[in-house]
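Hi team,

As requested, here is the filled-out complex form for the FE2/S2 (inorganic) cluster run. I kept the field names the same as last time so the parser does not choke. Let me know if anything looks off before we queue the next batch.

— J.
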Amino acid sequence: MGGSGIVKVFRFDPEKDKSSRFDTFKDIPYEGRRVTDVLNYIYQNLDSTIAFRYSCRAGLCGVCILKVNGKPCMSCHRVAEKEMVIEPPVQYAVIKDLVVDFQKKVKAKKTEKE
Ligand code: FES
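And here is what came back:
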């Protein structure tokens, strides 16, 4: 293992923020890791305010669904890449950062400014 990557993470707290943003984290170990591992690394070492969720870590329960580099995936199953943009799934209302309300569907809109 080795190598480090750059990760942009969607951030939004509806109780505090007027609009969403992306925070960029550099020098993130990614080789041999899943996206959930990368988020855990960021949470444990760089920013413990980041909100995301997972449960089974086996690709079975579906609570870890996210959008990574524009494509939906189970983050516990998806292999991490050197450069990643991590966003919540677009069809659900954001509770905080990468955590969504699976009971509240919203109209999909583009969130990443490219
Ligand atoms: S944590 Fe259950 S599918 Fe990813």
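Two things worth flagging: The chain has a mean pLDDT of 93. Residues 54-57, 59-64, 74, 76 surround FE2/S2 (inorganic) cluster (CB under 6 Å).

Thanks,
J.
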